Amino acid sequence: MEEQIKNIVEKFFSKMLIDFSSLEVVKELENIYYIKLESTDSPLLIWTRGKNLEEIKSILKIIINKQTEDNIIIHIEINDYLKSKEDKLINYIKGKIEFVKKTWNDFKLPFFSAYERKKIHSYVSTLKSDIYTKSEWEWKDRRLYICKKNNKITIDSDGVDI
Q1: Residues 46, 99: one domain?
Q2: Which of 63, 79, 95 finishes a domain?
Q3: Could you give the C-alpha distances from 129 to 13, 58, 121, 135, in angstroms and in order?
Q4: Which of 13, 42, 50, 88 matches a 20 to 30 Å C-alpha distance to 56?
Q5: 2 Cβ partners below 8 Å, 6+ apart?
Q6: Rounded CA gap, 19 and 37, in Å?
């Protein structure tokens, strides 16, 4: 399947007259493939905030699913753009975690995609600290919060088991 997807992707970018120096397709999980492309045309392919990258991903997914007659999910990485984007996201979250630790106030994050929210939840859960995340609302209004756990001290009225 990797070879078939690679051929489809090569043909797609060739017809778009996109110059690429390397193309790799790796199966991540069942029906999920990672496509890594190195190209000097990356500004055109990615565009502002990855807008073109998302559109290319959608079109390629349709073409691949139609030609393979499978329901394939793809992730496209162009010149490590997604890695860089993820690093920036994690650095932003680290700053907000420090803010929450200093102020003891929950911090309501701006809107993030479901994928980004999952990355944030996952990152914070690996910290093993008194910080956690929670989501509120539904669908497009879904918001993520960074919170500090309340470590409550309970005192027995008899003074036993404090």
Answers
A1: no
A2: 79
A3: 45, 38, 13, 18
A4: 88
A5: 25, 26, 27, 33
A6: 10
* Same domain, residue pair 95 and 141: yes
Tens digits of per-residue pLDDT, 104-159?
Answer: 888 988 888 877 888 899 999 898 888 988 888 777 678 889 998 875 545 555 55
Query: 6 is in which domain, residue-wise?
Result: 2-79
24 to each of 75, 76, 84, 128, 159, how far by Cα in Å?
12, 10, 19, 35, 66
What tokens appear for 70 in the block? 């499978």
- pTM tops 0.85, yes or no: no
Looking at 79, 97, 118, the residue that finishes a domain is 79
- Which structure tokens are listed for 140? 């497009």
Q: Domain total for the chain?
A: 2
